[in-house]
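Students often ask why we bother encoding 3D structure as a string. The short answer is that it lets us treat folding as translation between two languages. Here is a chain of 254 residues written in the first language.
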Amino acid sequence: MDTSEERMTPQLKEFLLTFMPEKCYDQFFLHFNFIHVPCLKIVLSKTMGILVLMATVFAPLAQIGKVVWSGRSDGVCLEAVFLELLAISAHGAFCYTQNFPNEAWGESLFALIQIAFLFFLIQHYRGKTMKGVCLLALYCVFMYFLVSPLTPVSVVWKLCEWNVLFVIAGRLIQACNNYRFGHTGQLSALSILLAFWGSLGRIFSSLQETGLSLPAQLHAVACCCSGVILIQVLLYWNICSTEKVRQVEKEKAE
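And here it is in the second language, the structure alphabet:
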């Protein structure tokens, strides 16, 4: 009769084989060669790919969750979210116009929907629901024209090339906004951490594909910007907690 450990071994092996080919599994766990460079690159590439996927899918979701849970959107910069939306929209539009398979960019479409919803929520919780609806409608019209034959492919490609610049600009605006007001409001620490991890993954992927190229350097800048915002979230944590207590006390008094 198999022991519990023996039953778990195939399951563990199956899980590990999602990160590496069997030859690398043998190198690591049969020959204990943990410095096998080609296999290390494969494992790192897989891990970084997962980080990018998690950042793309779950970072907006974490921010939406915090805004909805608190019922407030203070601290979340509308311009920064718009630039993030523009960046992911350019990537999604390019993939769509080039007829990429859905599984190659499906997570971008999911993130696009989430960020567009977050863009609306920011306006809604600031008491500008109708303005949010109108802006969302304008965005839908923009996306329709962007993916239609009316827009030259060269324009879509250029926007896609610039998407990292949009991300950098958005994060710089958010960081400046945090510094200006002295708090991060309803910014989600988990969302910023995931964005930071995602940028790290994109740096690694760019270095693997093109070496120390301009895209790799831009992703490094985006990563630094996320790092700055993450530090601000930690520095202003107690300030945000104090502001929340004051808000609750004010609401009770009223």
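Translate back mentally: Residues 51 and 198 are 5 Å apart (CA to CA). Keep this in mind for the problem set.
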